[in-house]
Amino acid sequence: MSQALASHPRTILEPRMQDDVRTLLSPPPGPCVSIYMPARPVGAGDEPARIHLKNLLRQATERLGETAAGEILAPAYALVDGAPDIDFWRHQEEALALFLAPGFFRYVPIPFPVDERLEVGERFVIRPLLPLLGGGTFYVLALSKKEVRLLEVDDAGVRRVDLEGVPQSLEEALGEQLTGRIFQTHTASPAALGARAAIVHGRGSGEEDLKAEAMRFLQRVDAGLVPRLRDRKAPLVLAGVEYLQVIYREVSHLPAIAAEGITGSPEYLKDEELAQRGRPLAEPFFTEDRRRDAERFEHLEGMGRTLLHITEVLPAAREGRVSVLFVSAEADLRGRFGEDGRIHPGSEDLLDLAAAWTLDHGGTAYAVPRNEVPEGADVAAILRY
C-alpha cells in the first residue's frame, strides 16, 4: 500500500454481497457520493482508469463544495494523487463503484461493464449492484489423481477453500487399499485439454480397476466436502477428465452440480482460469430464481398481489410489503418521494429508492433490461400481502 493510502482506511465489499450491501443501505449522516466508472486499464499502465476517476472526483468536488469535499473525497483522491496504489489498479474488474460519506469509504469491483455515473445525495445508489446479488457464489471442484482443489468464486474474486481432512490425491485417499496393479496416467498437454486427457496403462482389468479405485477416492472426497461447503445451494462446477466427472456425479450427495463441466486435466489451469471457464456453466442456476419470480408475477397478476407503477410501488416498498421487485436497468425515473406518500419534483433515482427499500425489508430486487421486466414496464412488484 502506498504512503498516501496508509492514512485512509478503505474497505472492499468482501464477498458476501447479500449481507454487505446492507452497509450501503444505512449510510452515515451527511452527503453520500456514489461513483460508477469503467476500471479495466486501456493502453499503457493504469493511467486511463486513474485519470477517469480524478475527473469524476473533480465533478463531485464542485457539487459538494471545497470544504465538504476535502473530508469526504480524501480516500478516493489518495488512489489517484501522489504515489498511486499500483496494485489496486492492476487488479480491477470491468468496472468500479466507490461510495464515500463523512468517515465512510467502500469500493466494489464489478465484473461487467456499467454506465458511468456520479450521484450526490442523502443515500448511496445501489441499483447497478443488483446483478451481483443475483449472480452470487459458485464453486469449482478440480479433480485429478494427483490433486484436489475447491475454489469459491463470486463477484469479489476466487479463493481456494481449505481442504484439511479431505484427501488430496488417490494415493492419500486409499493408501494401502490401492490394488496391487500398478498403473500410470500420462496427462495430456494443455493443447489437448478439450479431448480425453488421461491414458491409463497397467495390468489386470484396466478400466474396471481404475473405476473402482476412482469411485472410492471420490466418495471420500465428497464425504469431506458436503459438511464443508458454506452454501450447499450454490452451484458446483466440476473440472477434470471426463471419467472422473462421470464417477463424481454418481457418488456425490451435493444437490447443485452444474450439468456441464470443464473437461480436461485441471492441472494446467490456474485458479483464475478455472473460475473464468466455470462462470458460464454456473449461470443457469443464477437465472432460474429470476425466471421463477417472473412466472409467479404472471400467476398473481389480477389477484391484487402485483404492482406496475412507481407511484404504487414506492409506498408499498417503504412499508415492507414488496417481496420481489423488478426494475429496468435503463430507465431513469427522477423525483422526490414525500412523507405524504406522493412523488414530487426532484432529482432522486426513484427506481433505486424502491430497490433499496425492498432490500432493506428482506425482499429480492432484480435490475434487468426493460424487456425482462414483467409487462415491459419500468418497475414491477410482487407483494407479500
Describe the structure in your own words.
- Helix 3 packs across helix 4, helix 9 packs across helix 10 and helix 12 runs parallel beside helix 13.
- The protein has three domains: 123 residues, Translation, Eukaryotic Peptide Chain Release Factor Subunit 1, Chain A; 148 residues, 2-Layer Sandwich (Nucleotidyltransferase, domain 5), CATH 3.30.420; 83 residues, Ribosomal protein L30/S12 (60s Ribosomal Protein L30, Chain: A, 2-Layer Sandwich), CATH 3.30.1330.30.
- By secondary structure, it is of the alpha+beta class.
- The N terminus is likely disordered.
- The longest helix has 30 residues.
- The chain is built from 13 helices and 18 strands.
Tell me the layout of helices and strands:
Layout: H1 3-6, E1 11-12, H2 17-25, E2 32-38, H3 47-64, H4 66-72, H5 74-77, H6 86-90, E3 95-101, E4 104-110, E5 117-121, H7 130-134, E6 138-143, E7 148-154, E8 157-160, H8 170-174, E9 184-187, E10 198-201, H9 207-225, E11 236-240, H10 242-251, E12 262-263, H11 271-300, E13 306-307, H12 310-318, E14 322-328, E15 334-337, E16 343-349, H13 350-360, E17 364-368, E18 379-383
Parallel strand pairs: 1-4, 6-11, 11-12, 14-17
Antiparallel strand pairs: 2-3, 2-5, 3-4, 6-7, 7-8, 9-10, 13-18, 14-18, 15-16
Helix pairs in contact: 3-4, 9-10, 12-13
**Span between N and C termini?**
51 Å
C-alpha Rg (nearest Å)? 25 Å
- The poorly predicted ranges are 1-10, 180-204
- Assembly type of the shown chains? single chain
How many runs of DSSP E, i.e. beta strands?
A: 18
Strand content: 15-25%
Helical percent range? 25-40%
State the secondary-structure class.
Answer: alpha+beta
CATH class wording of the largest domain: Alpha Beta
| CATH-defined topology of the largest domain | Nucleotidyltransferase, domain 5
Count of helical regions = 13
Adjacency order of strands in the biggest sheet: 1-4-3-2-5
What average pLDDT do the residues reach? Answer: 82
Give the number of domains: 3
- Can you tell me the overall shape? globular
> Biggest sheet, in brief?
5 strands, mixed
Which second-level CATH architecture of the largest domain applies? 2-Layer Sandwich
